[in-house]
Amino acid sequence: MAQTEPNLDHDVSWFILPSYWAKMVVALISFLCFANSYDGDFVFDDSEAIINNKDLRAETPLGDLWHHDFWGSKLSSNTSHKSYRPLTVLTFRINYLFAGGFYPVGFHVINIILHCTISVLMVDVFSILLGGLQFSNKGRRLNLVPKTSLLAALLFAVHPVHTECVAGIVGRADLLCALFFLLSFLGYCKAFRENKEGHNFSMFWVLVSVILGAIAMLCKEQGITILGLNAVFDALVINKLNVLEFIQRLLHKDKSLEKAGLLRKGLLFRITLLMSGGASILYIRWRIMGTGPPAFTEVDNPASFADSLFVRAINYNYYYSLNAWLLLCPWWLCFDWSMGCIPLIKSVSDWRIIALAALWFCLIGLICQALCSEDSHKRRILTLGLGFLIIPFLPASNLFFRVGFVIAERVIYLPSIGYCILFTYGFSLLSKQAKKKKILAVAVLGILLINVMRCALRSSQWRSEEQLFRSALSVCPLNAKVHYNVGKNLADKGNQSAAIKYYREAVRLNPKYVHAMNNLGNILKERNELQEAEELLSLAVQIQPDFAAAWMNLGIVQNSLRRFEEAEQSYWTAIKHRKKYPDCYYNLGRLYADLNRHIDALNAWRNATVLKPEHSLAWNNMIILLDNTGNLAQAEAVGREALELIPNDHSLMFSLANVLGKSQKYKESEALFLKAIKANPNAASYHGNLAVLYHRWGNLDLAKKHYEVSLKLDPMAPGTKENYNLLRRKLEQLQKKGGA
């Protein structure tokens, strides 16, 4: 089907393997790179996208996935990031259902399998991109460059920048997108296998390619770019279009575009079909998502908020150069590049301008060669390499809309295809000129081995949040979010002193970092350093007046300082900004209980349980308040209602058992006490109150037994020692009477 062209394999000193074995080798090596991430935890964004995403749970209707964003928020919400990836969320949901809960192993295994599958498909993709599209007489596609296609596939499989996509579960979106992206490309190539009817192309496979492109976009936004790349491939490989010649004819308004190759073999028709399909997909997506832009803040992408067009342009180009550097030298990798990690370039005197110059020098050189070279083979490979490098990156480039990051390693997954094409082609050119080809091959093999080791090291860092966050300290020491996440991880483990240090550094690096202020204020509140806690939380709500969590925490601090009116006002402000805020209603109820406003307290706690039926603390406080105020019947009714909703909560069993005991329903009370003790056998109060029940009931031996257990667990348990002594005296009196 295609004319004979120079073969890249001719001068390359590299392994040659049968297609099956080449794919097995690629699969095995890609597996080895990331295998140690299989039993990692849920880390970083996994919490929001998976653990806190209600769309994964069986009780959420499947239809909701099509109206929610990747994080489970309604697309119509002002806070939605508009990341519409329903098919990726669907795979998370299937993972969750098969695992029977949030067990990360299954999620990680699927990611590893996806990357291995994609790497294997790359052997076929690179054989087409580097060697052209040719079929045997039997209609079987031929791999004319088995050496270079294997090398390019290995380069892709072991690239360390892919670690975030594979080891981070949220990277599933990029993996699924890449899978259908490649299937769309291979499907489009199948359209040109000459069939028995002698047609130039198969309409069926073109339409299949468009559908697979749509599926790729439903996994992640970048997927839509495959339709453009299919058009580029069609023009360059199928129609042998000379881009420079075509542009010249177009500029000179030459009507003989047929000679330039535009209309030959149905190219214009297929491009129209691809464009129509892409436009239809984008329109449907727009109808579902609405027109509102995503809500991003300055800390997410500071360059996009710069007033000067010059500053924005310079920094965007600097970001491009950093992405290119990550492809060339993927040694400094970080889970987050925002919040001061990359300070803005504000003048041409900044030495970092050199990186922009280097990037454009290389790009312009490659583009000139891709357009002007007399070697059609070189023009084709360089244009395809640049196309696969640049076009999939366009949605992340800030050119069409603001994105919510500075640099994200995951978005380089698809563009790395272009990098691998250019690297492999460069290697073939060097091999052609080199006298000692084996030394060059050993150098490339060394690069592959280094990348394998780097992948293994980096994927081990993604196994836990502690390792991941700490690994970023040396890469982005100016990133406030890195210090914040290290601090949060330490706080979750109970190391508050160390957490304070990192939170303070986060606030120092970014004095407007309200989340760091909020978390630091919380720790200081728990350490009873209320004055500084109030100052931090007050500053946080001053910077971000709609920060509901900070308002609630400020209310808790004010309540502790016995400034009840201010605390009440803070709670209501929090509820104003987040109407469905059960924890705030719970704390408001505690305030009202402290003020002896019992009805208001009960109403607040009832609101908390309506918004969050499993809010155990709110239920417990209602039962205890009703018990303490002598409303035993109402307390019993609330306790039974709570246990129907949360049947395994031992604290609710304990509270209801106390109420039933006071109502002289001893048998039912005993059963609940015993059930609570079975669930939490080391709670001294459970044994102590059961002993009181037996004491009242007249089961003195059992009362004695549980008093002793309670005192053994907590010798200072209030009231238990006194009750135990009373019981002992009573038993002694009974023994004396029995002896008399």
UniProtKB/TrEMBL annotation:
This protein's membrane topology, according to the annotation, is:
Multi-pass membrane protein
GO MF annotation terms? ATPase binding; dolichyl-phosphate-mannose-protein mannosyltransferase activity
Q: What is its main location?
A: endoplasmic reticulum
Q: What class of enzyme is it?
A: transferase
Question: Among the record's GO biological process terms, what is one?
Answer: positive regulation of endoplasmic reticulum calcium ion concentration
Q: Where are the transmembrane segments?
A: 20-38, 112-132, 144-163, 169-189, 201-218, 224-247, 267-286, 353-372, 384-405, 411-430, 439-457
Q: In which compartments does the protein localize?
A: Endoplasmic reticulum; Membrane
The segments carrying the TPR repeats are 480-513, 514-547, 582-615, 684-717
| Family per similarity comment | Belongs to the TMTC family.
What is the name listed in the Swiss-Prot or TrEMBL entry for this protein?
Answer: dolichyl-phosphate-mannose--protein mannosyltransferase
What organism is listed for this UniProt entry?
Strigops habroptila (Kakapo)
